[in-house]
Amino acid sequence: MNLVRLPDGTGVPALGQGTWKMGERRGSCAAEADALRLGLDLGMTLIDTAEMYADGGAEEVVADAITGRRDEVFLVSKVYPHNASRAKLPRSLDASLKRLRVERIDLYLLHWRGSVPLAETAEAMERAVAAGKIARWGVSNLDVDDLEELGAALPRCSR
Description:
Layout: E1 3-5, E2 11-13, E3 17-18, H1 29-41, E4 46-48, H2 57-66, E5 74-79, H3 88-100, E6 107-110, H4 118-130, E7 137-139, H5 144-150
Parallel strand pairs: 3-4, 4-5, 5-6, 6-7
Antiparallel strand pairs: 1-2
């Protein structure tokens, strides 16, 4: 498996498993978790999910899939833009951690830009790193102008 090196030197698989549309129908959750486990068996150790997917249902599917295998998985989840403020991000992150049944997310992403200032989101993400709830953070679906606004002064951002 080809690896991509994050700014902190961590190697992550260039190809991972996505979970969009998982967790939407309770009757399919066991089969979806089985599919993720098969992917892990085949070496697909990066799993990407989000609080948005099935209103957290996809995170619950991931939890079922990685039970007993957490150390094999590079876990990525994403926060809604409207939950990316100083006040809301900690609550949103805690809810994701609870649904995922893990103590830490390997990479936590801002799903897309919203009305919360990026500097405030960066501050909230850094606090989550300091608290040990996420190992690193990054962004998803942002424009070049947004990335430039974040600036090079944010060493933990895995843009």
